[in-house]
Amino acid sequence: MRTQVAIVGAGPAGLLLSHLLHLRGIESVVLEARSREYVEHRVRAGVLEQGTVDTLVESGAGERLLREGLVHHGIELRFGGQRHRIAFEKLVPGRAITVYGQQEVVKDLIAARLAAGGQILFEVDDVVPEEIEGPRPQVSFTHRSQPLALQADFIAGCDGFHGVCRDAIPPGVLQFFDKEYPFGWLGALAAVAPSSDELIYASNDRGFALHSMRSPQLSRFYLQVAPDEDIEAWPDERIWAELAARLETVPGWNLATGPVVEKGITAMRSFVAEPMQFGRLFLAGDAAHIVPPTGAKGLNLAAFDVTVLTEAFAAWYSSGDAALLDGYSRACLRRVWRAQHFSWWMTTLLHSFDSYDAYDRRLQQSYRDYVCTSEAASTSLAENYVGLGRR
Ligand code: FAD
Ligand code: PHB
Fold first, then answer.
1. pTM for this one?
2. Distance 221 CA to ligand 2 centre (A)
């Protein structure tokens, strides 16, 4: 098998890259370890920045997103028994976010690729990027028990944090930056109308809770829990009781409950691998960097990486100019680090830390008060949350 760009991973990064390359007349093949059914139903992110929405719409894959996505012009912070709205329309005029499930983005992109005759091989095993230092890299893999090799000009490692591409880069090349948090998030999807028109980021002495949504009939919730928490210890009644204890903290506000249709626990960490490239292998999305989900940035960073990578491949194929490819990592890392800082900052602002002493707690309280009372501080939160410009 031969193609121009071999893409490992059919998450948002790999699929969007394949779609954008196709629009530039560049061929690719996507290799994915899981089944189509699995990747289309994996519940994860929900918040799209304007730049991500624009990329999807301009690429022709945003029709359903425009129809079904929920455009939000603010978020609510809730702590100390008070609610504070971060009003995007006032603080960052003309900019908003769109709530639309990651698995819906994945479905739309798979449909677009298949409609255009694109090749996505699901349920491949034993994926190994090879010869990445020379001009003829390839990916060996197994499909339906058959050992195969995909030859290409380039390999795009879009295989997420636990993928194999990052590890294919020789030891000593990459520098890693890593931070683990002493908690995880329990996520729950529930068949109940959202109790709020906008997302609520809440915190009290029991910990952090987030009320998000997917549609007028589906709500999405997150709870700060211990990092090694067992989901079996969280029957639905306990989830609802804890959400109520952390969210029903302002007068007259009640949480509507309903059947939980999906739940799981995710660890929280920050991670960056630099540089995001070696030889003919380019890393994009979670394969190169992850953030705790508090800032809602992971999917948006993945989308940004692949728009930069598309431009770089397009320049190389049209004129042989490698300058953009050589500068790929540098072009992405500036935005990556802004998102790293913002995600760490939101996480620190909103979670309970067992390690905090009385002094640390006062500092946190003071910063929360500052964000709620200073227009400069709220504007900083707002501009990072909706996403900085595309470049
Ligand atoms: P992934 O989505 O991880 O895709 C990688 C793909 O590669 C997967 O399909 C995987 O099966 C495949 N793969 C892995 N190994 C191999 C292999 N060896 N061979 C072949 N295929 C392989 N981000 C936001 O922007 N906003 C949010 O609101 C938000 N909320 C989140 C909430 C939660 C609970 C979680 C867990 C994450 C959240 N994120 C959010 C982060 C976001 O989901 C990720 O950043 C995003 O999925 C990254 O996309 P990706 O394509 O880089 O990686
Ligand atoms: C989500 O709806 O899944 C979501 C929203 C905001 C976040 C993280 C996740 O910060």
1. 0.97
2. 8
